[in-house]
Amino acid sequence: MTRLHQEGKINFLGKSQTLPRESNISSDEIIKSLSSEEFPFPEKSFDLSNDKINVISNEHFLQAFNKNQSITIQNPIAIAKRLHEYLLRHHNDAEIKIVITLRNQCSLIHSLFAESYNLYFRNQKSINTLEKYLKEGLATGKNGLFSMYYYADIISVYTELFGKNNITILFFEDLKQDIQKFTRPIACLLETDEDFIVEALTQQKNSKIKTESGYKTPAFTLGLFISSLLDSRMISRFSKKIRNNALIKNAYHMTLKKVADKIKLSEGKNVSHLTEEDKERIIDTFQLSNERLWQDFAIPREKLIKYGYLKNPSQE
């Protein structure tokens, strides 16, 4: 997306932290406000292009938790309604298409914990190991950390709000096993060359490292330490002034953050593979929701079984 934006082929509104900081500061603030009920409802409109496709790409719209000093639970369905209300209020005449990418829950729970460990879980004693995170998530169900994994519920709301014909469902597993099935719909929506999308996705780097035993989280850096310090209660009033000052924030991201992110304070943490028992518990928890993916949205059941969303009947 960043490269398409830089080449003038699309107007990429977010994640704007992947763009030069001066390009989309206001869009970044709007997206942040929309992705959490803790923030005031944004009153500004996006600076949309009239001759290019405008794109927002942000997994926080579907995330079940956010971090503002400490982890807070949020409802992805409420965020969907918030996004719809904002677009209705500010961009009512725009043609809106929604793309949702799914990944089987066993794989995503494991990957997200490792990827986001430093940002969300490191300093949260109740969920600072994969075992604790899994226990908490499965125990709280649709009202807790794992509400984001009830895919059928979330897709149903987006379908109701934006219309079934405006929803495209993609599978992360296709990206790994049959990439054209993943890239072709994106290229069509963006009206761009599919080979370009394939090249961009295959060159994307992952911040966590795969190991024989599971994953190794990204190293804890000075940049992450500064971010956690700015989120701390001790200096929240002072740090809020910094975060709300576009000039200071821009200067930090353009210079200091690049240096701070390279200074390691500690190495990454090993996160072991899920046990077979854990995988079975996860699949059992989301079985009914995943059944609705083929019942309500015509996704082939064989595909859901192949990619680990549903139990294989022969193994039951």
Helices and strands in order:
Layout: H1 2-6, E1 10-14, H2 25-34, E2 53-56, E3 65-68, E4 70-73, H3 76-90, E5 98-102, H4 105-121, H5 130-140, H6 151-162, E6 167-171, H7 172-177, H8 179-190, H9 194-202, E7 209-211, E8 214-216, E9 220-221, H10 222-231, H11 236-243, H12 246-260, E10 264-266, E11 270-272, H13 276-297, H14 301-306
Helix pairs in contact: 3-6, 8-9, 10-12
Question: SS-based structural class?
Answer: alpha/beta
Helix and strand string, N-terminal first?
Answer: HEHEEEHEHHHEHHHEEEHHHEEHH
Q: Which parts are unreliable, with pLDDT below 50 for 5 consecutive residues or more?
A: 16-25
Strand coverage percent: 5-15%
**Number of strand elements:** 11
Oligomeric grouping of the chains = single chain
Helix content: 40-55%
Number of helices: 14
Instruction: Kindly report the spatial arrangement of strands forming the biggest sheet.
Output: 7-8-11
Ends distance: 42 Å
> Major sheet, described briefly?
3 strands, antiparallel
Mean pLDDT: 83
The geometry reads as: globular
User: What's the gyration radius in Å?
Assistant: 20 Å
Notes on the structure:
The chain has a domain at 219-267. The protein contains 14 helices and 11 strands. With 316 residues, the protein is of the alpha/beta class. The strands form 5 sheets. The chain has a 3-stranded antiparallel sheet with strand order 7-8-11, with helices on one face. Helix content is 50%, strand content 13%.
